Amino acid sequence: MDMKHDALFPVSSSTKEQIIAVLSGEWPLSARKVYTRLLKKHNISLTYQAVHKALRELTESSILEREGTGYRLAEAWIAHLGNFSQKMKDEYDSVHVARETRALHRFVFTKHSDFVRFHLDLARKLLESGKQVKMTFHMRHVIYPFLLLAVEEHGKFKELLGKSEWVILSKNATAMDEWCAKYWRRLGVKVTLGADVATNSILIVTNDYITDARLPKKALGAWDKLFESVNVKNFDANRMNEIILEQKFETVATVFRDRKIADMLA
């Protein structure tokens, strides 16, 4: 899989990412307390000087900010996580709300097909752990069904779909969106067109995992142009496959776990 982060279960990440993970669940913390949490929770060998340096660099990069003698995630940085970030920000600011947001992880996929495989693999891992799986897709357009079949064997995909619950919410309702919706509904997927979605790109809720994915403007424009076809017969399937499977562009995804926000979006 071609991306700049190896896995979600569990994450072996850099010191900076581990610091962000610690401060996602508890804040503000002094440099010494961050260091202690890293040693206890991540069972890693590192020096206090390395942690102090990482905290300074994260602060200089405006990812962290000082609160008294401690550190916390910067509000401006949280605001960049996506359209749903205001809900998260409100929870983060309130000292009266249980802090249930788990570690934030940032993934960069250089092929969109790898982003698709990533989520199919995530659903399978949850199923293998004995959990029921519900996936809610907040989309700019309805998922083009043959995209999934292009990255996964048909029988294997139908088996996954049969074991999980899928809901697709599409911001747009073009003729092509209608055609794709009919396909998904025949497979038992709930689809709503013209929905009030929580993104202008892609947002996926898989149980309590939330993925906010950002595509380049050029890719979003190409996606819109393909779905503008008034006559479905004029839809350029080859161009769609080329964009998704062959054309290289970065899909930047932020993933975190939060049951309350997931319930709001599911």
The side-by-side strand order for the widest beta sheet comes to 3-9-8-7-4-5-6
Indicate the radius of gyration in whole angstroms: 20 Å
CATH architecture of the largest domain: 2-Layer Sandwich
Helical region count?
Answer: 12
Helix content: 40-55%
Distance between the termini: 27 Å
Percent of residues in beta strands? 15-25%
Are there runs of 5+ residues with pLDDT below 50, and where?
A: 1-13, 81-101
* Record field, number of beta strands: 9
Largest sheet: 7 strands, mixed
What is the total number of structural domains?
A: 2
What characteristic shape results from the CA principal axes?
A: elongated
CATH topology descriptor of the largest domain: Endonuclease, Chain A
What's the CATH class label of the largest domain?
Alpha Beta
Q: What does the oligomeric state look like here?
A: single chain
Order of helices and strands: HHHEEHHEHEHHEHEEEHHEH
- What is the average of the pLDDT values? 79
Q: Structural class of the secondary elements?
A: alpha+beta
